[in-house]
Amino acid sequence: MTVGVVWFNAMEVLTWAGLWLAGWGPNAVLSLVGGYRFVAQGLAYELPLMFALISAAAGAQSLSVAGIAAAQRGHLWFAAWMPAAFAVYLASVYAFSFFGPFGYPAGRDLAGGVLAELSGPDRLVFQAGRWLLLTAGAGMAVPLFLGGGAGPGLPAWAWSAVKTLAVLLALVWARRRLPVIRADRYAEVAWVVLMPLAILQALAVALVVLTTGGTP
Amino acid sequence: MTAVFWVLAPLAAASGVMVFRFASMARVTISLLVSFLASGGLLIGLGLAYLGTVVILMMVMEMVIMAVFMMAYMMNPAGLVAMSMVHNRRGSLAISAATFALLAAGIFATRWPHRAGAPPRDPTFRLGAALMGPQMLTMVTLGFTLLATMVGAVVLATHRGRYDRFGDDLKRRAPSDPARGGVGR
Predict the structure, then answer these.
(1) H helices of B46-112, where?
(2) Number of Cβ pairs closer than 8 Å across A and B?
(3) Where does a domain end: B85, B112, B136?
(4) pLDDT digits (tens, 9 = 90+) for A164-180
(5) Quick check: B124 and A187 CB within 8 A?
């Protein structure tokens, strides 16, 4: 697909509708509050994430995932010279799978929030989807920021799998070591700190591409 | 493409109709969202991958935000109580029928030009070049107008101004806000 990055963004945003529906569906207070919490969080994390994706796409001058991975071949990985975009991206992976510091919509103070009314196969499917979102986010970090399948010795698919597993392990390891952030507090951090940071990062990438005509 | 059309076009139309049949704000929102998603799929089927994907992306966000604000400020809390989505039945029927007839007549009455040349290899790039090249001034003006409108709407909507936050002589160092933010103020 020629616009893979935009497609990834669109599919990740579907969580907004899905999670709000999951909160509204059971007709119960706590799960609905959990759904609303996710929307509040979404309004905060989505725009910095978009600018992080824009940074990677602008650095490669391509909206296709394969094109972005190919642009890093033989060059510095994007994670190395777009550290702010990479950090914002990793935080957003937690946010759209509502794990770790962004576990507020399924918080214990809400008796599980969006998970409160789910049990049996429903809960299994829901939790599996949540882990899939985390894994997909970790997998997408590889072509966007970590050079895709580039690496010595092993074939490209093996390097992609190794890198995906490494990112996933790091995310899972840090998951319970970070405190949960309240959505209202994160909203201010996102709009006052992360947004300007992400915009400056995109500007820096654009300037580098304009002056050097490519990637460093 | 024909198969895609015959799956998505009836879906878009049917879920559009259901917007006026459902009696719950939440169902209406999701129904409208399905209609927009099907329209985005149709655009992708027409070869406009970027445009279709952006429609999907923006519509999901817009519909969820709309649901939250409609329910929070206008309708019953949480959209859980049944309510009618139809107002001014006769008037709106007349307007929509006339608009539909006008647009349909336009489609059939127009003498459509034949395509000259082949479509560009990368329509997204050509679209961006057209918008950001000769139309740059228009886009910049549009961007500033939209931003000014948003800031103005927020200023008009909020009941707390800078004098409430920083005191009558604006000398308070840390604003006094009902909810503390995340950057330690």
Answers:
(1) 49-69, 89-109
(2) 72
(3) B85
(4) 999 999 999 998 898 88
(5) no
